[in-house]
Description:
The structure holds 2 protein chains of 2 kinds. Chain A is an alpha/beta fold. Chain A has helices at about 45-50, 65-75, 90-100, 130-150, 160-175, 185-195, 230-235, 245-250, 265-275, 280-305, 315-330, 345-365, 375-390, 395-420; strands spanning about 5, 15, 30, 55-60, 80-90, 120-125, 150-160, 200, 210-220, 240, 265. In chain A, helix 3 links the parallel strand 5 (about 80-90) and strand 6 (about 120-125). Chain B has 3 domains: about 5-80, Elongation Factor Tu (Ef-tu), domain 3 (Beta Barrel); about 80-355, Rossmann fold (3-Layer(aba) Sandwich); about 365-460, no CATH class. The longest helix of chain B has 25 residues, at about 365-390.
Amino acid sequence: MDQAFGRLVDGTELSLVQHWPVRRPRPVAERLPGDRPLVTGQRVFDLLFPVAEGGSVAVPGGFGTGKTVIEQSLAKFAAAQIVVYVGCGERGNEMAEVLTEFPRLTDPHTGRSVMDRTVLVVNTSNMPVAAREASVYLGITVAEFYRDMGYTVAVMADSLSRWAEALREIGARLQEMPGEEGYPTYLGNRMGKFYERSGRVVAQGRPERTGALTFISAISPPGGDFSEPVTQASLRVAGALWALDATLAHQRQFPAVDWETSYTLYADATAPWFADAAGKDWTHLRRDILELLQRERELREIAGLIGAEALQDADRLVLEAAAVVREAVLGQNAYDPNDAVSPLGKTYRLAFLARSLYESARDALRAGVPFEALDLGPARHTLVVARYAPPEELEAAFARVEAAIDALRAAGSEVTAEAPPSAREPPFAPEPLPVLESPPERRADA
Amino acid sequence: MKPLQRTYRGARAASGPLLYLEGARNVCLGEWVAIEVPGQPARRGQVIDAGERVTVIQVLEETLGLPPARAEVTLTGETATTVVGRELLGRAFTGTGSPADGLPGPVGEAIRPIWGAPMNPSRRQRPSDFIETGVSAIDGMNTLVRGQKLPVFSGSGLPGLELASQIVENARAPRGEAFAVIFVAIGITARETHAFLDRFERSGAMERSILYLNEARDPTIERLLAPRVALTQAEFLAFEAGMHVLVVMADITHYCEALREIATAREEIPGRRGYPGYMYTDLAGIFERAGIIAGREGSVTQIPILTMPDDDITHPIPDLTGYITEGQLVLSRDLHRRGVFPPLDVLPSLSRLMNAGIGPGKTAPEHREWANQLYAVYTRGREARTMVSIVGEAGLGESDRRALEFAERFEREFVDQGERRRSIEETLEVGWALLETLPREDLLRISDQVWEARRARREAP
């Protein structure tokens, strides 16, 4: 491959091999705004904190909060054409796991092995520090190369903190004046530079090709404290924050994404695409779910003081409904064959049904059904079952959830029938459910 | 006299454990040094800084009474090595690998540098063999597998070492394969060593084990070498002699303190709480030596024990350890006070390789769901417990009250097992019995399929 197949006028040999200094970004013709999301297959991200193709995400979390599981799930299931996975200063056995598991998995978008679209850059924690510093740059340069060919590329770096520590170690050996927590003063600057290497671009040359490079980096803050320099420097440049929380992880709520701290700047830009691909009221649905979770957070604080029994019925329902959302929608089991990846349609339907469960129970409460008499059990159970249902049984599972919710609604209307008409709420009219399907075909570029 | 050996008379200065030598040529980093002073016992040291003019030597033994001007310093031209071999089984050594049991030094099968080479990740085999430790909270909830590194996060006064000895005593090779236990004492007291060995001897596994002992009274610097010497031997036994080796190291906190002591003596820029910035890399150099190499028989499994200063899990030592190891077993002072043994708090504990070690053909098909369910209810019960202290039991909902009682019984009946060994079947049974005290609606993590299968099994005679 490195044999020359041609020669330029000035004598430069042309071959199929390209050499590029890893620390210098490859040039592009034009940078484009990101308006389509990188569908991750993880409900909590697709629904609540989407990332645009060409975006960048920081995923900080203490040890045991599931950073690596998230990075690996994304590497396996995210809708990218090429995945570059940089194992930077992490465990050797994890890399062994990737190497055993990835070749066995099928990429749902191409039907070929996941390994075929993956490039691994490995520097385990006991390998030389100088190589660790270079490994992230290497990964991102390889990714840029594919981006320039017109592919959508996702780079997962696990973890950027180890890279920063390598920088610190080298800086200390060079006897540089340390900045915050011993990190060199140029840490923020360097980090900003390679976060900025993500983006959706038009590549140089002909024919015109658009490619995207999405950068998702895990961060391991010491003691799980996000105020440390690496996390803070990332937040200044990253477009989304998926904050992982140790308390949630201890509760085995995975992915342990703290929906209060996390944010995304891509929600508005990607909303039209989601509305088109998943369901028209996607934006509403997202807002309603976020609102429910926010309300739950406030109520929990009160409940912690006065006890859940002492809350009003409507508030107790919020707690119950939020528990359903956490369990059936946000929670996702990375080791379950049917739950590890959630197509957009499934995510939408689960969230939609969780919301109708809440709304119909709320309507029943308003109609005068006492909270104790509300039986959320069947609806909740069927919803969790649907989460784990194999694809071919999904429709049937959803039908059972709907039946359970209908029963709830019926309980409400029985009471309303007896009540004076003025107390009656406008009839509940659900949006027509979209048919389950995978998102529209991706551009057949490159 | 070896060809590369060079002797210099008189060093320039000594400070703390460091000796400064001037004018030495062709010094290599990590070179082994012998230091003689007339009328004093011989000392050993290691080059930690090879400068153009000044060579810094880290002295292993006590430097009190060492006159730099009269010292005779011999650079041996060799880096630290150790003798490895099967004949070391059943013996006791110091942290540097010299005999500590009064017997002559071993001839061994090979001499190896103690630093080891990092395993190529693509040559590693993914660990997936279940180790039955006989401890329910580990086997059931945080399963240990071969080739894993699973530390015990203890606190001062908590029975971390007792738990380790219980694991060592119970964790036999399931299919009768060759196995060995290596115990590395790093700066622990003679009492702790005795307590561990006493229990260990009773289990009759002494001839399958090697001890590397660096106790609190031994040289500090040796603490940095002891785990590396031991792991070099472990790697030989595992990858060349085909044994399954379990390495117990206590206490990593002393190791890190020794590291900090040296770093300060070298006037390095301190990181968090005075520990050097490279502590992560240094610890990784130890912990990453656990694993299995594809195509070789044996495995190296590590159970490091560390003491969390002031029970603080965010202290740099447990923090960095947790980032490197494949999970952690956290001991709880609260459970210990209530007489629960082992006082394992399953919520912050974790085994990252658990999923590879459980399931059909290994433990039980429903193991994952079963463990998830126990976790879910226990978490709820623990939350309810915090709530009770504020609002009283009357303020709890029905299912919270059930979870509260469950949490109590879970700690008493599942976690607390005293000295008894439980097989994995017994562990699963105890867990099921607890789960079955709850109504089906509280057990959403259990699928209908598993639930039915369990019912059918229970009703069968």
